[in-house]
Amino acid sequence: MKRLLLHICCGPCSITTLTTLLGQGFEVTGLFHNPNIHPLTEYVKRRDGCLAVAERLGVKVIVKDDEYDPKAWFRDVAFREGNRCFHCYARRLERTAAIAKRGGFDGFSTTLLYSKYQKHEDIAALGRDMESPTTRFVYHDFREGWSEGIETSKAWGVYRQQYCGCLYSENERYARLLGSGS
């Protein structure tokens, strides 16, 4: 397996993920498809961070700005907010698998496997469920490069987000700003 399509959620998560895959001999193409990132300004910062890292590492990236559609994701998770991460992972991995298959890639993977804050086993199971005989899901526990990725992203000046990406995670991250609510 040589040609791999890598779903990329942001620049910092892509650094050690890309270096690992490139070091394993894969010809990697990135895919920036993150239709649930909120707000749009956050999406743009993450996209630009992804592109900066890719340029630095010499990796091509397919950017799906035309598919940015948080309203569709909100419809997916309406009344299922407790299981919103599953829907987020599924939407992005389904699109990655479809593009990989149509593009003749040997495999696909995701930088979501880098974050220690994501539901790693769910992501891996979804990826395996979406593979086909011609386009396999490439699993790797990229969390091993967590600290290195953080340090490198700081040294390179890559935008570092403070929450997962959706409106719910942003609210959870900043809820403390509301105080005790007298």
From TrEMBL:
Disulfide bridge positions per record: 164-166
UniProt keyword annotations, A-Z? 4Fe-4S, Disulfide bond, Iron, Iron-sulfur, Metal-binding, Oxidoreductase, Queuosine biosynthesis, Redox-active center, tRNA processing
Please give the superkingdom of this protein's source.
Bacteria
This chain's function reads: Catalyzes the conversion of epoxyqueuosine (oQ) to queuosine (Q), which is a hypermodified base found in the wobble positions of tRNA(Asp), tRNA(Asn), tRNA(His) and tRNA(Tyr).
Q: Name one GO biological process term.
A: tRNA queuosine(34) biosynthetic process
Similarity comment: Belongs to the QueH family.
> What is the recorded name of this protein?
Epoxyqueuosine reductase QueH
